[in-house]
What we know:
Elements: H1 27-38, E1 49-58, E2 61-73, E3 76-83, H2 91-111, E4 119-125, E5 130-133, H3 140-154
Parallel strand pairs: 3-4
Antiparallel strand pairs: 1-2, 2-3, 4-5
Helix pairs in contact: 2-3
Amino acid sequence: EQYFGRPGLLDLDELPGAADASAPPPAADLAELREAFLASPWAAREPLDVEAPFEMVVADTIVRGRVDAVFGEGDGLVVVDWKTGPPPRSRSEAEDRSSQLAVYRAAFATLHGLDPGSVRAVFHHVRENVTIEQTGDVSVADVVRRLRDHAAATTR
């Protein structure tokens, strides 16, 4: 947010998989992360929005969140979530993160009146300079089911 000159808000409502696996980096790592970000292709692009909020209703579930950055791409958008931790190490973690990206794609397609096929959603793992795009066909209905399963499991 500081780099693009747009301060963001703290978002406490995160989807499963939204948080990095590691704790926030110590202050000593911030310079390293900044340099890694500046070496990425994302640093040279101008975002349309930073810390962009969204809200959508799926069935009887309200899904709210924020994405780190939204960029124009041809006739569509690419939604980016910066990660300071490593890429997923397990199938479960990859599935949770895929769910998060599916929600981002659906939300921003709806918000901007675009075909979902013209919206990409990616994670950029800053330290590794690796961008991972959602793969597979995860529906928003699948995401809602996973959210409900996750909520039920944590309330037991």
